[in-house]
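Thought: the user wants the 3D structure for the chain below. I'll pass the sequence to the structure tool as-is, report back what it returns, then summarize two notable features.
Action: structure_tool
Action Input:
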Amino acid sequence: MPTILVTGATGNVGREVIAALRQRGRAGEITAATQNVERARGQLGNDLSYVKLDFAHAASFTPALAGVEKLFLVRPPQISDVAHSIVPFLHAAKAADVRQVVFLSLIGVDKNRIVPHAKIEDAMREVDIPWTMLRPSFFMQNLDTTHRDEIRDGDEIFVPAGEGRTSFIDVRDIGAVGALALAEAGHDYKAYELTGAEALTYGEVAMIMSEVLGRLIVYRKPSLLAFAARWNARGHPLDFIGVMAGIYTTARLGLAARLTDELPKLLGRPPISLRQYVQDYRETWKR
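Observation:
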């Protein structure tokens, strides 16, 4: 019977958590939570169970949580007001007798209290379900999703991170740690700060991408105002832009450069490098 509920199942990290659980032979225990079950089934396959979950509709919470023992929780990026969506879902999980929540948080969340992740961490402690916080640094895969078009079509990286360094991490590594925390004992009430093995400026990222892709990729170093103006012109809501600006400001101020050794200790291998990531995903940026 499925007992592990994975939210954000078709997203970057949720998909990799499912892949890592599959590698452990746990596919039969997984329920993928999604707003569109048929589309998710087409993306993820028929060896999983599926359930409809919409954080904007509390009526979906109880059916989605029925029989769930462990929960992998991802905040949908469009949700910034977590008090009216994620927090009630956590209370529903408590009522459903969920025994562990593994939450995809954010590195430096203890110092950056304005981000929604901080409010969710606080709520998890208040609800008092055994929790595991995954606090990764900035995803490498944001380069092939959020920033794919500007790189593929414009040969540029347009983020307001200045000359700050970022300890990028591959979501495949986050997924492996998430599966570990869900599948093995000993991870309750632990917070894992997860990074890659190198802290790079976006200028260095552009250089690596140029070398691997065989064409010049330029880091533009926009101001926060220029970044917000471009994303607003693309139709993104201001609260979403604000969250992104806050994350990049962390990098700009040098707060995203810290490296930890928690990932190799947990997985028994080095983190995936950014050069390897670009090589593996190079088709994404081919015109």
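Final Answer: Structure generated. The first strand starts at residue 4 and ends at 6. Residues 4-139+169-195 form a domain with the Rossmann fold fold (CATH 3.40.50.720).
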